[in-house]
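Subject: sequence -> structure tokens, single chain

Hey, anyone have a minute? Need the predicted structure for the following. Not urgent.
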Amino acid sequence: MAFTTFVARNVLGAQVRAISSSSVVAKDHIQDLYLRELKSYKAPAKAADAHKGQVRDFHAPQPPKAPAVPSSGELSSQLEAYAAAEPDLAEAVKESSSSELTEGGDVNAYLAEAAADIKVEAAHH
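Reply:
Had a minute. Here:
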């Protein structure tokens, strides 16, 4: 075993790097001062009524009241009034003539023109 260690040291001797664990670590005086000041800091005491101008008092809203239940006589009279009422009729749509079209053309002519092949004009350079 001693021979293996000796050979390993001789073969790898140039590549081995010595690490010293006894190096002196310099103290950081700024960090020490900072930590001492943090530990000695006392927050200023607040008054018990310091929140008075900042927060409003909470008052719970009134609970909602239940709606009144109509009697059976009221319900039947409302249903009879609804059944007897005439339904509202929508106004009858007038037939539009060809002169009243917004674009002034026939819809079928427009669709035929849209379905036709598009002619590409030669670009002028």
